[in-house]
Amino acid sequence: MTMVQTVTGAIPVSELGRTLMHEHLFIAFGGAEFDPTAVFDRAAFIAEAARRLRELREIHGVRSFVDPCPIELGRDVAMMREISEQSGVHVICTTGFYFEEMGLPPYWRARTVDEIAELYIREITHGIGTTGIRAGAIKVATGAPVITEQEKHFLAAACIAQKATGVPIITHTQDGVGGPEQQRLFADGGVDAHRCLIGHCCGNADPAYHRRIVDGGSYIGFDRIGIPRLMPDETRADNLAKLVKDGFRSQIMMSQDRHCAWLGKFQRQTSPRELARIEELRAEGKWPPPYTYIFTDFLPLLHARGVTQPDIATMLDENPRRFFAGEALPAPSGGR
Description:
Layout: E1 3-6, E2 9-12, E3 18-20, E4 26-27, H1 42-60, E5 62-67, H2 77-87, E6 90-95, H3 106-109, H4 113-125, E7 137-141, H5 149-165, E8 169-172, H6 179-188, E9 196-198, H7 207-215, E10 219-222, H8 233-245, E11 252-254, E12 261-262, H9 272-283, H10 293-304, H11 309-325
Parallel strand pairs: 3-5, 4-12, 5-6, 6-7, 7-8, 8-9, 9-10, 10-11
Antiparallel strand pairs: 1-2
Helix pairs in contact: 1-2, 4-5
């Protein structure tokens, strides 16, 4: 029986159920801890995060939640475990760092590929720090417009760790580029394409880009649903529906890349108008935006484009199970 590691222990992949494959609970970019205005109430956050996950489980049937938080972006697996225990939702964490422009701590930039791989393998097989909590997947992140030499260094370490442990790889791509290049580097590192989920592909509006990913044999992430600043959801829905109609529903993963708390300010400058709107939403209990958006707002867009309930079940239930099980992809089902 194939097992997957969650923050509360290993479970059979058959118990994953409906899964959101790329979400976050808590994010903290390095340096935020020095901002005196960056206030964080751990107990209140855990209670709110657990409430939001219970809402997903009780109303929308979500049983599992993958949080591929990079190591240096405030990853707190003990906190993830408390939230999982209180919500009744399986939470899967990852090992791996972010991309060069916004991550990769100097200490680890100075390490060899083998040293980085050794860290990843230890976090997968023995546990993260002294928590005993084991990572269930590997996070890889690359920037734009090209993958840097430093990022290739960390990607090579991920390949070593994947082959040593058998856990899958979940990626971040920036600005809708880099997916095919990631696939090529994974292949060079001896990693099978179907063990990789190429993330944030919905940040690229070109259907030809999406076809390059699925034709390359990987899973494709439409996993920034509900972030109009990066791409209108109508465009995401058009492109996702096209992939389904072309027979690739078994390679699509849907998620939102949302968070429940962010320490301090954003990594970009925000306008006074945007900040005022955020405060309005916060006062209404709608900030950060709820994880339920994918079900309440995005799935109706897909249904209007001919995507069926069986298609949805494949993408949200069956594909995550197959991905973590390491099973080969089925053949494309043919166009409609």
